[in-house]
Write a structure and sequence with these properties.
single chain; little secondary structure; 3-stranded antiparallel β-sheet; 3 strands; rod-shaped
């Protein structure tokens, strides 16, 4: 504490951290935990399929153009 007033080094007081210690981080591996619902979308043609809980979207292929789907 440089001044003895409890503030600590400059820029490291309360409220300056990224997540503020309140669960605002992105989780392990930078994931976003989208949950069981939602759709799988083709980045090439825009076709959508309902997301299945047992199959990741990136393992599904688009029924129209054959590209790998992404989660939306």
């Amino acid at each position: 504490m440089p001044r003895g007033d409890g503030t600590g080094p400059r820029g490291q007081g309360p409220g300056t951290g990224q997540g503020l210690g309140r669960g605002k981080g992105r989780g392990r591996m930078g994931g976003s935990a989208l949950g069981p619902g939602g759709n799988c979308v083709c980045p090439s043609c825009g076709a959508t399929l309902p997301h299945q809980t047992t199959v990741p979207c990136n393992q599904m292929t688009c029924p129209k153009c054959g590209a790998k789907m992404i989660r939306q």
